[in-house]
Amino acid sequence: MDIIFLKEFRIKTLIGIYPWERKVPQTIELNIEIALPSRQAGKSDRIEDALDYSRVVHRISAILDQQHFSLLEVLTENIAQMILIEFGSPRVKISAAKLDVIPGVKQLGVCIERSRP
Prior knowledge:
29% of the residues lie in helices and 38% in strands. The protein has 117 residues and is α+β, with helices and mostly antiparallel strands. The protein starts with a strand and ends with a strand.
């Protein structure tokens, strides 16, 4: 299965359960692997046959701009479902991490993998 990936995608968003986290955007880091629905792009060399990375980034940015999430688990689930449905991916793996929020811990987060039925 062919996979495209986005590594170390850093973006500011409102995330968390504490009152200050509802007001102060935090930087999160996303690492995403997206299984391609077909291998056609590798044969045709046409963007029309490929999954457009910039559209994925734009949709993730829009989701994070429009909604506050309390938990990283819900944030990653929303992103995973969007990729599966809107981009037709058969499988997606996402890790989401908050950066430097606990002294001595560089990253803390969650990793999920979802597939279409």
